[in-house]
Every structure is written in C-alpha cells, then in structure tokens.
Design brief:
By secondary structure, this protein is of the alpha+beta class. The chain is built from 15 helices and ten strands. It has two domains: 203 residues, no CATH class; 195 residues, no CATH class.
C-alpha cells in the first residue's frame, strides 16, 4: 500500500495471468534471450582475458618488463648503468644482454636465429626461461666454453640434441688469405627450452655474454640491460621515471611498447567480440518490444480507464517501462548467475567435454595455447550486466510511449 502507484500496477501486470498466452511465451523467450546474451558475454570475454594473460605471460617469459639501451644501440659501462637503475625501488632486478641475428647450421640443415648473449646467473632474475628448460640449464653456459641453449623447434629444425655441435655464422666478415669470409664458430648445445610460442621456440638461442662479445667483437659493450619491475602493469610509469634519471642519451622501453601492436590487436578483438555479443542481447531486446506492444494492445481498455481516472501519460509510460525492466533484470541476473560459475570452471568443463567426445578441442601441436582458461573480472562482469540491462531499458521506451498515447474515448468506444 506504500508503493508508488506506477510500481504497484507494473508489478501487478507482471504477476497477472494473460488472456493471450502467446504474450507470456514471447516474454519467456525475451528473458531467455537476455540471459543467453549475458551468459555469452561473461564466458567468451573471460576466456579471451585468460587467453590474453597466457600469451602475455609467455611473451614476458622471453622478453623483459623494460629495457635500457643507448640511442646508438650499445651500452659501454653496463655495470654502472645497472647500479644506477637499481636505485629505483621499483626495479627488482637487472641483467645485461647482447642481441644479434645469425645463421645456425648442422650439416646441410640451416636456420636463422636470434642470438641473445646473457649472464646466466643474472638472466634467471629477469626472465622465466630457466623454468621452461626441458633439458640442461642456463647455468650450463660457461664463459669460454662456447655453449648454446636452443629453442625446441629450432633444435628440431637443425636435428640436434644436447651435446651435439652446431656452427654459428655471423653477418660480420673476416679478412683472410683467401679473401673475405663470414665469421663463424662451432658451439656445443648444452640445453633446450620450450616456451610454447613459435616465434621464440623456432628462432631463439642463448649463449654466454662473454662468448657473444668475442664472437661479435663487442669487447666491453652490450646492447642493453633488461629490467624486472615490481609491477609489470605499472611499467609505462616506471620507465618514464627511469628515463628521467638516465637523461636523453639513453632509450628506455617497456614491454607494452615492444609488443604494442600485438596487445592492441588482442584488445581490438575483445572489443569487437563485445559488440557482436551485445548485438545478441539487442535481438532479445526486440522480443521485449514485441512483448510490450502486445501487452499494450491487451491492456488498452485498462490504460484508458487509468487515463480517465486522471493518470498522467508519463505515469503510464513508467508502468510499462517497469514491465520491460523486470524482463531485462531477470534475464540479466540469470545470465550472470550462470555465466560466472561456468567461466570460473571452464577448464574443468572443457576437459570433461573432451573426455566425453574423445577429442582435443585445442591440439598442442596446432595451437600455442592448448588449455582453455578464464579470467573473470568483477568490474567487467558489472559492465557486461549493466550494458545488457541498459539495452533492455532502451527497448521499453517506444512501447511505453505508445501506451501513454492511448486516448480514453477511442479505447472505450466499443466497450
């Protein structure tokens, strides 16, 4: 009795039995459509979050949170640079590196490779490569022993295993008695790693930084230092602070700049998917329009009586907006209630389905990421739910407006 009259009548219409059962059926379809749309939004985009996180983690296991190098591509006094950068409390660790493109050969097998010269003990503090080793270890790289750690696919291409030898051919030339010859050196394979991303497993190789300096005639120079930060998501801000400390003669880049196009493509794909799935909710919203239009026709005499008793057109609009809002809210709550548990347990559900159908949805020999995981973010779930609910509210405006335009005399003429 204390409810506003619009809310009371709107809820009464929702609970009342309808003369036309087809209207109730359309209302049920509308609720199911909204629920399915919200369910799809939460599950699909949460899985895309998990996929993006997995790709980011695998990428950062080989790259670094940030790098510091000179504008000419070299650092002469890299130990002083490391001491300087470690004064920043948000820098956890730093390690020098040499980066060069070479050719690797084993007999008739030849493959291009990206060589990274490292200090093994320092490298383990800034990257996760050591945890990805399937044979050997980064610490097996000893200065002067000319050892080499290869990606698994690169090792398979060359047909080598731990203990075998490969020839490293550099783009630099040496002048000999018989003319200009490419500089080359025999290295022994001391380990193999597998990150799970083709661009690294098929092209990356590690050697000790002293061996790389001799091979490429770097002497005491390196190409830069790799940094591990306290929070990788704060990397842009931290790198700006580091850049201020070093001045204009140094170039500081964070991981988001190094892989800008890749992560931007992932974000664009996620945005497009959100729009596509929201269109599914929009289709369900069209059913809400149909439901309310038929309800307006069914309740035309009731509306006329309310208008004759003095109810304002705006109040009539509110009554039917409440009906449509209830359909949207009920469907949204069902979608959230079903979507969040499914997204949280998507790995177990997919594994169960794979066992039932005796198949592998994402074969590891085809896809880089073979496990389906999800990252459910509360803020995103709220955004999806509010977006879907807003679409359903917009769908109620036209039918409610039509109801408010009902003329009592015309509606009651034949009653």
């Amino acid at each position: 009795m204390f409810q506003p009259k619009e809310l009371f009548i709107g809820l009464r219409y929702i609970r009342a039995r309808r003369k036309n059962h087809f209207v109730s059926f359309i209302a049920f379809i509308s609720i199911a459509g909204v629920a399915l749309g919200v369910f799809s939004l939460i599950v699909v985009l949460s899985v895309m979050n998990g996929f993006g996180n997995e790709l980011r983690d695998r990428t950062l296991s080989m790259t670094s949170h940030a790098t510091v190098s000179g504008y000419d591509g070299y650092l002469s006094d890299w130990s002083a640079a490391i001491d300087k950068v470690k004064k920043n409390n948000e820098v956890v660790a730093a390690a020098p590196y040499i980066r060069k493109e070479v050719m690797l050969s084993n007999g008739r097998r030849v493959s291009g490779s990206l060589i990274r010269g490292i200090q093994p003990e320092m490298e383990t503090t800034v990257s996760l490569v050591e945890s990805k080793m399937i044979s050997g270890s980064l610490t097996d790289l000893k200065s002067g022993e000319y050892g080499l750690v290869l990606g698994r696919e690169l090792a398979n291409t060359l047909g080598v295993y731990e203990g075998d030898r490969v020839t490293v051919i550099t783009p630099q030339a040496s002048i000999t008695a018989v003319g200009v010859m490419p500089r080359l050196r025999r290295f022994r394979v001391v380990g193999v790693f597998e990150v799970g991303m083709h661009q690294f497993d098929a092209a990356m190789a590690y050697m000790h930084i002293d061996d790389a300096a001799k091979l490429f005639s770097y002497k005491d120079k390196v190409n830069g230092i790799r940094l591990k930060l306290t929070d990788l998501f704060e990397a842009p801000r931290i790198t700006r602070d580091i850049e201020k400390d070093f001045g204009e003669d140094y170039w500081v880049k964070d991981w988001s700049k190094q892989h800008k196009n890749f992560f931007r493509a992932l974000q664009t794909e996620k945005t497009v998917m959100f729009i596509i799935l929201l269109m599914m909710v929009s289709v369900a919203a069209l059913n809400i329009v149909s439901t309310l239009m038929m309800t307006v026709t069914d309740k035309e005499s009731d509306i006329a009586i309310l208008r004759a008793l003095g109810m304002r057109p705006s109040s009539v609009m509110v009554i039917f907006i409440i009906q449509g809002a209830f359909i949207g809210l009920f469907g949204t709550l069902i979608g959230v209630g079903a979507g969040v548990p499914v997204a949280l347990n998507v790995f177990e559900i997919v594994s169960w389905l794979e066992q039932i159908f005796s198949t592998d949805f994402l074969p590891s020999d085809v896809y880089y990421v073979s496990d389906i995981t999800a990252d459910v973010k509360v803020s995103e779930v709220l955004t999806y739910a509010l977006s879907a609910f807003s679409v359903t509210i917009l769908a109620t405006i036209y039918p409610a407006w039509r109801a408010s335009r009902t003329l009592p005399a015309e509606a009651l003429r034949y009653e």
